[in-house]
Specification:
Blueprint lengths: L4 H7 L2 H9 L2 H14 L4 H25 L3 H8 L3 H28 L10 H49 L22 H9 L9 H14 L5 H30 L3 H4 L5 H15 L4 H35 L9 H27 L4 H27 L12 H27 L6
Helix pairs in contact: 2-7, 2-9, 2-10, 2-13, 3-8, 3-10, 4-9, 4-10, 4-15, 4-16, 5-15, 6-7, 6-12, 6-13, 6-14, 6-15, 7-10, 7-13, 7-14, 8-15, 9-13, 10-12, 13-14, 15-16
């Protein structure tokens, strides 16, 4: 089957929204820090992580396109444990992730003069409220359009900053070794950084459910059901944007901050945002402030907005499926009301999480990296669920993954599981720790 412009135009959306969700903490914080600390040495690991997660994140798009069911419906039909497990992890990680990304967005807003006098906590509340109002009033249509605009702005500004650096050249000496650097990233002590980097690179594996649910809303909006090739084109476009943007942020970090990665992530609160912008402007020039600030805010606000839609949408869908009241695809007024309720509940829970974190003296690095680490450690579970559901009798054999993709899935499971075991052994059992 050949792709048509009309079909692509009516199908384009869920994959771009997925890109908006992914291009946030993993890119702005982890990818930039990776370049600043280790030059280009972690590019291989970043590409491998994106490669190994690709088939699992693709599952939701393919499953829905070929079956007409959401991936959550597939989970329920495939194994009675899958849906409750996704619900439990989703409730915990959703609150933590939404709180983390909204707080980082608020920190970046302090670089704008009109917001600089406000406490970050107040700004975080404002970010959550604004995001919530957009979703409650505009629903999927607003999410779709705003995400496309933000991803476009982010891509253009980041590319412009990268090309400006290429033209000017690296600031100081830089290690261009693609396998190692000084210092070397390949030490067990660096797992505390590598695991979060991979956890949200390009995003948590549980995101495989999100495009599946967004496809129904897109179809309801356009009155068009995307064919498999059209849906996967949309997904692949969004995924390509996330990979390219990650490499751009690594390069920006390497070119402008090599040797200063620890300084960028030092301190807490406003200091992170100030360090990030200061290191860019000091290296490129003060004019870069009006590129880096909008790009970073676009990255984090798009992530906040999409996460505030996707986690409640997933939980609302699971509730409908478990109670057997509906399919959880937001096709009725009762489902829409339930989704709005879950959005409000997630805003309240995230605000409570922020207040608890502040009272406990948790830094922005601890907050975000904690969410990233949790996402990575749960990744093998969701990866297995996704692979097992797509390659089950629920899906026609012609739509199952072929030998290459199946091999990639198994390699991905070993990759994610192996690093998870290594991290647990090092963190909790002292593997590799000098005594």
């Amino acid at each position: 089957m050949t792709l048509s412009k009309k079909g692509i135009g009516k199908s384009l959306g869920p994959g771009i929204i997925l890109a908006a969700a992914c291009i946030g903490g993993s890119h702005l914080m982890s990818s930039t820090t990776a370049g600043a600390r280790f030059g280009f040495a972690l590019i291989g690991l970043i590409l491998l992580t994106n490669l190994f997660k690709y088939p699992f994140l693709l599952v939701g798009t393919r499953f829905t396109a070929v079956t007409g069911l959401s991936l959550l419906e597939g989970f329920k039909a495939r194994n009675p444990l899958y849906l409750p497990l996704y619900l439990i992890v989703g409730l915990v990680t959703g609150t933590l992730t939404i709180a983390a990304v909204s707080f980082v967005t608020a920190l970046l807003l302090t670089n704008i003069p009109i917001f600089s006098a406000f406490p970050p906590m107040d700004l975080a509340i404002g970010v959550l409220v604004v995001s919530g109002m957009i979703l409650l009033l505009g629903q999927y249509q607003a999410l779709d359009r705003i995400s496309k605009v933000l991803v476009f702005i982010l891509s253009v500004l980041t590319s412009f900053a990268f090309l400006s650096l290429i033209h000017r050249g690296a600031i100081g000496s830089i290690d261009i070794n693609l396998l190692n650097s000084t210092p070397s990233p390949w030490k067990l002590d660096n797992l505390a950084f590598l695991i979060p980097l991979m956890g949200w690179m390009p995003g948590p594996v549980e995101l495989c459910v999100w495009p599946s649910l967004w496809m129904f809303s897109k179809s309801q909006e356009t009155k068009y059901v995307a064919k498999q090739e059209e849906a996967e084109f949309d997904f692949n476009l969004g995924y390509s944007i996330t990979v390219i943007t990650a490499l751009l942020f690594v390069s920006l970090g390497a070119f402008t901050m090599y040797g200063s990665g620890e300084a960028m992530m030092s301190g807490s609160g406003v200091s992170f945002a100030q360090n990030l912008i200061h290191l860019y402007t000091e290296s490129i020039g003060d004019w870069a402030r009006w590129i880096i600030i909008p790009a970073s805010i676009a990255a984090m606000f798009s992530t906040t907005l999409t996460c505030l839609d996707a986690y409640p949408r997933s939980i609302s869908a699971i509730q409908g499926l478990l109670q057997q009241t509906d399919r959880g695809i937001n096709s009725s007024s009762s489902e829409s009301r339930r989704l709005r309720l879950w959005i409000v509940l997630h805003i309240c829970a995230s605000l409570a999480g922020l207040l608890v974190a502040r009272s406990g003296g948790v830094t922005v690095k601890d907050f975000v990296f904690g969410a990233m680490t949790g996402s990575f450690l749960s990744a093998p579970i969701f990866a297995w669920m996704a692979m097992d559901t797509l390659n089950s009798p629920l899906v026609g054999r012609q739509y199952h993954f072929g030998p290459l993709m199946k091999s990639l899935c198994w390699l991905g499971l070993f990759f994610l599981g192996g690093f998870s075991i290594l991290f647990i052994a090092h963190t909790f059992f002292g593997l590799g720790v000098a005594r």
